[in-house]
Amino acid sequence: MSVDHSTVRRWVVHFSPQLLERFNRRKRSVTGKWHMDEIYGKVRGRWTYLYHAIDSVGDTVAFFLSETVTYRGRSASFVRLLRPTFDVPQELGLL
């Protein structure tokens, strides 16, 4: 079977919203207690900080990369980043 790349792209554009809706219906809700972890490592040859939020079950809620570290207010800035997509956690612990 031979399929052109533009046909595949049209399928993706057409079926992505339907798949997203079905995935979100089955998705488990995020718990109210999160932990934030910070890892320092190389990403594409550059040293960066990886921050990720983990809920009480151990699933990753969200993550972001930063080249600089700010210890003061890092949890507040992380919660600000999550606010458009998730409810603010009831408890946020730093690991």
Relevant terms:
single chain; 95 residues; alpha+beta; 2 helices; 4 strands
Summarize the structure.
This protein has 95 residues and is α+β, with helices and mostly antiparallel strands. It is 33% helix and 34% strand.
Question: In words, what does this structure look like?
Answer:
- With 95 residues, this protein is α+β, with helices and mostly antiparallel strands.
- The protein has a domain at 33-94.
- The chain is built from 2 helices and 4 strands.
- The protein has helices at 5-26, 74-82; strands spanning 33-43, 46-55, 60-66, 91-94.
- A 4-stranded mixed β-sheet has the order 3-2-1-4, with helices on one face.
- A hairpin with a 2-residue loop joins strand 1 and strand 2 (46-55).
- It is flat and about 55 Å long.
- The N and C termini lie far apart (51 Å).
